[in-house]
Amino acid sequence: MLPPSVGDMDVTVPTAELAETAGNAVRVLSGRVVDPVLSGLLISAESDGFVLAGTDRERSFHARCPGVTRRGGRVLVPGRPFAETLRALAEPEVRLAVEGARLAVRTAGGRFALPLLDIDFHPGVDEPPQVVGTVAGSVLAAAVPPVAAAASSDETVPAFTGIRVRSEGERLVLVATDRYRLAVCSLPWEPRRGGLDVLVPAAVLAETARQVRGTSRVSLHHTAGDAERVALTWLESTVTSGVLASPFPDEAKFFSAEAECSVTVRADVLAASVRRVAPYAGPYSSITLEVGDGEVWVRGSDPSTGEAEERVEVGICGERVSRAYRATYLAEALNAYGEATIRFGMRGIRQGSIITAVDARPGGIELRYLVMPLVPR
After folding, report:
1. For the chain, does the N or the C end have fewer beta carbons within 10 angstroms?
2. How, if at all, do strands 171-177 and 217-223 pair?
3. What is stated as this protein's family in its record (predicted)?
């Protein structure tokens, strides 16, 4: 834990790297804290490096940056203004120096001074819990976004704002739902000790996945008990989060029924058609997929702007059916597969339609997406 001490800091740091790290930190930490101390970033200049850290008690961030230290010290400054100041600078390096009750960010032609917050009241940033396994950074970065998109933003039902992260042998399974759609993604990982089954806030996991893009390996950490926490570490960075305690539905039962009709088509082709018809989706944002002979008609109708329909050639197996979907949900589900060929399985009117990739995806990722059709009015 960082001790609550202040020194006469004077350090020179590469601007671009510090700006990126500070931006990553403020995106991880909550912007809605009342206590200004918890909205601050701890800056630590030491003989062997420069550390940026912060916590809002639920989440924490810790990263090390390159720098040349003249005088060491630790300070606490407002996080968002610090990150925004650095992002606006074009100079290759900045000098950070304590000047009285301010931390001065100095460039060749400018000075930007931020007030020092009371570091004595900051709780500090704890070390991450024990490692339970590792995963390739590029694979995690590709797997998380489509799952996170299916999570809810309605915090009155906290369970649905999370992503369930569950280990199954040498596979890691990510699950999220907002009750109208459900995404399940399985990816390879290397377990170290014990199992893993936690509900992580989707916003935290999505932001972390963005940051680890291009990283060779990411370690997952977990500790159980009264203060259950999960952490991800890579290179010189760590993100830690509390877990959601609410129960989460078992996704297996939602994929059990057979499809009445399966359509095979390139995801981007169908997505493009949905995008063109969407402006005519009407007050309920309803897009209809009507299956014919070797084709699907994508239709939308709006009393105020008119109607649109477009034919997409597809492969078909099963009955000819018609299903309506919310345009945004359908488009997001299709976009998750990029240019891959998918199988779109339509089931009963009150059962979700299931989307899967026909061929194996890069990195050993297996994605299943369920979208609930709209019940006819």
Report:
1. C
2. unpaired
3. Belongs to the beta sliding clamp family.
Given the structure tokens 């006819």, which residue do they identify?
A: 376
Cα(54)–Cα(124) distance, integer angstroms: 7
How far is the CA of 153 from the CAs of 149, 157, 162, 169, in angstroms? 10, 9, 9, 31
Q: What is the pLDDT averaged over residues 181-193? A: 95
pLDDT digits (tens, 9 = 90+) for 148-165: 999 999 988 888 999 999
For residue 292, how many other CB atoms are within 10 A of its CB?
Answer: 12
Helix H or strand E encompassing 256: none
Counting every residue written for the chain, the total comes to: 377
Superfamily of domain 257-371: DNA Polymerase III, subunit A, domain 2 (3.10.150.10)
**pTM, 2 dp:** 0.92
Indicate the pLDDT class of residue 255, thresholds 50, 70 and 90. confident
Model pLDDT for residues 236-245, shown as the tens digit of each residue:
999 999 999 8
- Degrees to nearest 5, angle at CA 347 with 341 and 351: 115
Side-chain-side CA neighbours of 282 within 13 Å: the count stands at 15
Tell me the average pLDDT across 136-157. 94
Q: Which of the listed CATH numbers 3.90.1170.50, 2.60.120.200, 3.10.150.10, 1.10.10.10 matches domain 131-252? A: 3.10.150.10
